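fold-stage: in
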Amino acid sequence: MPFRRGSAARAGGTQSGRASGALLARTASSTECPHRVAFFDGDDAGRGIGGDRGEFLGRNGSMRMPAELARTHLSGRLGAGLDPCATLQVKLEAEEFAGRRKAWQPRAHQLTGWLRRYARMATSASKGAIL
């Protein structure tokens, strides 16, 4: 979950939850979601986490082909001085992944309030989500 660069990198950060070990990310200076915390976790005890966009992308990397996809272990590098980016790595065998993918069903969206109103009025995002 990459965040915007700039002020979010200075005022936000990533950390690991004390009790759960979940990855927590915040962007305190974000105008869209100030003082909110996103959390990520997996049920694999051997899972890896990371919280640095520079490490995620790698040298000369891009969002199309981030360097961390090729790594077998994530560094666990977290902190307030980094450009925040939440990375969670869970290892699955091919058979287990195929079974989970086959059994997966998308959740029905239950929009309420302003988001529901906006969704009824806006066009497709591919057209610019024009009202």
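fold-stage: in (second)
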Amino acid sequence: MKRYSKLSLIDANPARRADRAKVLAESRFEITMFSTVMEFCNHGDEQTLIFLHDEGREVETLLLDMRQRHRWSAMLAYGDTADPVVISKMILSGLVSYLPTDFLLSDFEGLLVDMAEQITTLIDLRHGSEAAKRKLQVLTVRELEILNQLQYGSSSLEIGQDLGISVRTVEQHRYNILRKLKLNNGIDAIRLQIFSTIT
């Protein structure tokens, strides 16, 4: 994550924001604090890593603002949400990753180290959806249909019923999608599909 030297910390709770800034103070980032998403949208630097407390619809609001302005910055969130479905939906919408509110500096830095290649790839894809479109060209029409349904959270059983094929056939198509795209998991394939639609 050497691409970023600045971090925008967005948190509506002043005490928690100060506490989280204190934890992050030992990182290599220059930290700018904002109390609301709108404050960041109006005054923040686009060339920053965004770290946002998830409290309601903040992630969704910021992602919508980025889409409307045709810009994108890597965004991480922290919060008390433990529901993997909710977190997955945020990630599918463009969030890079999610940490618990009481994260330590080692958690944050470990995430950046572990995900540096993925985050860099994600950023490059966001800025170049043509590359994602080219990568998806290796898929068959059926594989693209299945990937599209996966994007909306459909299970293999639901996809099979909808397309009139067996669950085993759906699973074989999913395997082929990952193999052809040289990806390790379905979430990365779904991200690629989403990125290809960005104009």
